[in-house]
Design goal:
heterodimer; A: mainly alpha; 21 helices; B: alpha+beta; 2 domains; five-stranded antiparallel beta sheet; 7 strands; coiled coil (chain A); Small ribosomal subunit protein mS27 (chain A); mitochondrion (chain A)
Chain lengths: 415, 168
């Protein structure tokens, strides 16, 4: 009687140390230690009255002088309610359009995003991020991770996707934790979406390609393949300029060719890299869609394409002997050969990309998180030192200005 | 006519840089006209940017950088000219290594020498005779000494501005 109860208690007791990933209700990918804002809250900040700072900034602006990055960072530090988030946005816009716009500090950007998330203004944070030209918000990796995790927790994958596209535009896929998180968001959205406009396909392609180039495992290789396939599809349907304009991509034609080169590399390399069946199926579907229905494609083209295709064809294909369109049948043959070769070698992974990514995250994210947290703490200290230096410099300048003013007044009084 | 297609297709340098953190310091930028004209890599590596803060999208301004033209890197920082032309492209970070890889052609062993044109040759021989120089060697022009830049080599920006002033 007692033994089964004890056994059940043992089982329950063993289940108790849950991994910190799985909290009840909201489930983010990053651990609680990462998202924890105590260290940030505990930093030293100057307590200033927001109304004073605002009036100071307005007066300096009227006198046509720029205000310093220290003023704006003090303002953002002392936000304490949702309306003040709006005020801060206005002053960030003003700072960006002042001569000091280059000097917007990292810690100000980090604090701005944290404050937005704290006061529930995540749509404002996203808006300033997307309009980065006007607001100058270029967060670092840690801040990007926090923002993405917040959206993943709220199951708001659409906004998380926008964040990933912004990271891609800024080419900020340096840190492995950002790469893993963004791949997770991308595969989640791809699994749900069936049809996308060509701009979305292009953004997906680039955002899959850039982290895929950095990750040296089967997820990375499959992401590269998937990315190249999507970009090749946009290239053939819309022209090369549509692919690389305003994107961090190269202007050399032949994205489908590069996809096939990835397959060749995997087939001939001695490492254990595998390619996902999903990605291969995507490339297959792309090649078939592009080769088969020629009349449907050519009907659309004369309607839209007079301006866009006419001058493009003239201008861009100067050196190209054959167009991508004509190379498609050869690509299809090469793909079939390589596909059968990969299957013969056993290099095709049958699990879905999302499952693979989730597994990779579970294995590797804790290590990367620990590194990130250590780097963040160091950065906090560095920012503190810089802030102290700036405050000291501002005080010295004020002293000097006062002394000069006194000297001038004494000279005028004596004259 | 050619400029309109470019204005529609490409972007000016500051339009590209306004979208980057720290206005793209340390990044490589190329010009589409260089990409079409030369095979060797030609690019600017940005060292300093001063955007015009009165512009709507911060899409005007000045920039400075180190030029690498046809594989040869200069040693000084210069102002980047023709910044407002709609001709610029940003090199993506993952492509930088491939883009800048350049193996210079092996230099020829003997410097190329070419005989002078006839009038100049006659003048040189006459001068030699006047000096009493009894050398009978044919006067040869060394082609390697004077390096002629191609027509689209970026000129120095500072020189242009200073030339205008005349004393009152």
């Amino acid at each position: 009687m007692a033994a089964p109860i004890v056994r059940r208690w043992f089982l329950v007791a063993r289940k108790v140390p849950l991994p910190p990933l799985f909290l009840a209700g909201e489930r983010g990918l990053l651990s609680a230690a990462y998202v924890d804002s105590h260290k940030w809250e505990a930093r030293e900040k100057e307590h200033c009255h927001l109304a004073d700072l605002a009036s100071l900034m307005d007066k300096t602006y009227e006198r046509k002088l720029p205000f310093s990055s220290l003023t704006i960072s003090r303002f953002v530090d002392n936000i304490s309610s949702r309306e003040e988030v709006d005020h801060a946005e206005y002053y960030l816009y003003k700072f960006r359009h002042s001569p000091n716009c280059w000097y917007l500090r990292d810690w100000t950007i980090h604090t701005w995003i944290r404050q937005c998330l704290k006061y529930g203004a995540q749509d404002k944070a996203l808006y300033t991020l997307v309009n980065k030209v006007q607001y100058g918000i270029f967060p670092d990796n840690f801040t990007f991770n926090l923002l993405m995790d917040y959206f993943i927790k709220k199951e708001n994958y659409k906004d998380a996707l926008t964040v990933v596209f912004e990271i891609m535009m800024q080419e900020a896929f340096e840190v492995p934790s950002t790469q893993l998180l963004s791949l997770h968001v991308l595969y989640h959205c791809l699994a749900k979406k069936t049809d996308c406009s060509w701009e979305e396909e292009r953004n997906f392609g680039a955002s899959l390609l850039l982290p895929g180039l950095k990750q040296k495992n089967s997820v990375g290789l499959s992401s590269q393949l998937y990315g190249y396939a999507l970009l090749g599809k946009v290239e053939v349907q819309r022209g090369l300029r549509a692919v690389y304009h305003n994107m961090p991509l190269l202007w050399q034609p032949g994205y489908l060719d590069r996809a096939l080169q990835v397959m060749e590399m995997v087939a001939s390399s001695p490492d254990d890299g595998k390619l996902c069946a999903e990605a291969l199926a995507m490339l297959d579907k792309t090649l078939n869609t592009l080769t088969a229905p020629a009349p449907a494609a050519s009907e659309e083209q004369p309607q839209e394409g007079e301006d866009s295709r006419g001058s493009e064809d003239l201008v861009e294909q100067l050196d190209v002997e054959e167009t991508e369109q004509s190379k498609l049948p050869r690509y299809l043959e090469r793909f079939k050969d390589l596909h059968s070769k990969l299957e013969a070698l056993g290099r095709v992974e049958s699990e879905s990309l999302l499952a693979l990514t989730t597994q990779l995250i579970k294995e590797q994210l804790p290590t990367y998180e620990a590194e990130d947290i250590a780097a963040y703490e160091q950065k906090l200290q560095q920012w503190h030192l810089e802030r102290v230096h700036l405050i000291r410099r501002e005080e010295e300048q004020r002293e000097r200005a006062k002394q000069e003013y006194e000297a001038r007044r004494a000279a005028k009084a004596s004259a | 006519v050619r400029a309109w297609a470019d204005v529609r297709r490409e972007s000016s340098l500051m339009q590209l840089l306004s979208r980057l953190p720290l206005f793209g310091l340390g990044r490589l930028v190329t010009r589409k006209s260089w990409l079409w004209q030369h095979d060797e890599p030609c690019y600017w590596r940005l060292t300093s940017v001063r955007p015009d803060y009165t512009a709507q999208n911060l899409e005007h301004g000045k920039a400075w950088g180190v030029l690498t033209f046809k594989g040869r890197t200069e040693s000084e920082v210069r102002e980047i000219g023709q910044v407002m032309y709609h001709d610029w492209r940003l090199v993506p970070k993952h492509e930088e290594a491939a883009f800048t890889a350049f193996t210079p052609a092996p230099p020829e062993d003997a410097p190329r020498c070419v005989p002078y044109p006839p009038l100049l040759r006659a003048m040189i021989l006459a001068e030699r005779q006047k000096r009493g120089d009894a050398c009978t060697e044919e006067p040869m022009l060394n082609l390697e000494q004077t390096r002629v830049h191609p027509w689209d080599y970026p000129a120095k920006q500072e020189v242009k501005k200073k030339a205008k002033a005349t004393p009152v």
